[in-house]
Specification:
Strand content: 15-25%
Number of helices: 10
Organism: Magnetospirillum sulfuroxidans
Largest sheet: 7 strands, mixed
InterPro entries: B_lactamase-like_C, Metallo-B-lactamas, RibonucZ/Hydroxyglut_hydro, Sec-metab_biosynth-thioest, WH-like_DNA-bd_sf
Protein name: MBL fold metallo-hydrolase
Radius of gyration: 21 Å
Number of strands: 14
CATH superfamily: Ribonuclease Z/Hydroxyacylglutathione hydrolase-like
Pfam family, one: B_lactamase-like_C
Length: 351
């Protein structure tokens, strides 16, 4: 059985040039023409960082916050205060998650603009917004049954299915599509689109070489690993491999000393060190998952080996997604095999 670290990966000391965030509905300049905005979230992770880029006669906004009335009220305050005098002329959303795209509909309607995003993110958001029928719910329940959930956990899955639509306002029916390698001119500066994968289908990051600034969204965060999970819509997907590859490409593409503007926690410098730290973190989790499959195990059993703290049903869902992502990656490496028991529950064991 391979050895693996039983202690957490040691965090590197990142450089945080802005040690305190702006107040809600206020702004803080972090680079010429780049304003930091913070909005509240109704989750355990209680905030999101958004960005306003000076675009001459208007503002380019990056991400929106969650789709609730409180966040919309904060935007109204900003438009009457710190951002007053110029309209929003472009809205870019890094990915489809509710805290990033939740108000894309109202904001694009207010300013008569089109959402800018990758096709994969816009499509996935539109799909989940419109889902919620019996077949969708049945697929959700069947996926987690295959993971080893019992009746109580499955009832919670059924009750929570379709929750995406509760956190967003109706998304726009069209999109101005961006792709990896595109360049956007904002305020006379060039911003390069970098598409990362794993956390979401086609997550857009933005890099300005003139400013040496990377707007990273959730693709890389300073203290937490973004959720990298397998979900019921794509049960055989391999997002962890995509995420690890994206971390390596971030290191290859951008300078080690660039200022990283993440969606959560504080801006930082230390991109390469943080990428290496996340690579090591997932290597550790892979070895733990592999060790848990020394005897035939369900995904739920492996989850309990990986996450030994108490989890509520909502957290268990995210943990199941991450667990299956690690198991699918080990299968792709040829280290594990997946079979099914008589009830169709997935069983994992060493190859």
């Amino acid at each position: 059985m391979p050895k693996y670290r039983r202690t957490p990966v040691t965090y590197v000391q990142l450089d945080h040039p802005f040690p305190a965030p702006p107040d809600i509905a206020a702004v803080q300049q972090v680079a010429p023409g780049v304003l930091w905005i913070r909005m509240p979230l109704p989750f355990a992770l209680d905030h999101i960082n958004l960005w306003a880029l000076d675009d001459g006669n208007g503002w380019t906004i990056v991400d929106t916050g969650v789709g609730d009335d409180e966040t919309m009220a904060h935007w109204h305050s900003l438009f009457a205060g710190a951002l007053a005098g110029k309209p929003v002329t472009r809205l870019i959303c890094t990915h489809f998650h509710p805290d990033h795209m939740g108000l894309a509909g109202p904001l694009t309607q207010r300013f008569g603009i089109r959402l800018t995003a990758t096709v994969g993110e816009w499509t996935y958001g539109r799909m989940l917004m419109l889902e919620g029928g019996a077949d969708y719910i049945d697929n959700q329940v069947d996926h987690y049954r295959r993971c080893g959930y019992g009746p109580d956990l499955l009832e919670g899955v059924r009750e929570r299915s379709g929750g995406y639509g509760d956190r967003i306002k109706p998304l726009p029916t069209n999109v101005s599509a961006i792709s990896h390698g595109d360049c956007l001119t904002i305020g006379g500066r060039q911003w390069q689109v970098f598409v990362g994968r794993g956390h979401s289908p086609e997550h857009a990051c933005l890099y300005c070489a003139e400013l040496n600034v990377l707007i990273s969204g959730d693709q890389i965060l300073p203290r937490i690993s973004p959720v990298v999970g397998v979900w019921p819509q794509e049960p055989d997907s391999e997002p962890l491999g995509q995420f690890l590859d994206s971390l390596k490409r971030l290191k290859q593409s951008f300078p080690a000393d660039c200022l990283v503007l993440p969606s959560h926690r504080l801006p930082f410098r230390g991109l390469h060190e943080r990428a290496d730290e996340l690579l090591a973190h997932h290597d550790e989790r892979l070895e733990r998952a592999f060790a848990a499959c020394a005897k035939p195990s369900t995904a739920l059993a492996v989850l309990r080996a990986l996450f030994q703290r108490p989890l509520d049903p909502h957290q268990t869902g995210f943990a199941a997604g991450e667990t299956v992502a690690h198991l699918n990656h080990l299968i792709a490496q040829g280290r594990l095999v997946r079979t099914e028991d008589a009830d169709g529950v997935w069983i994992y064991q060493t190859a």
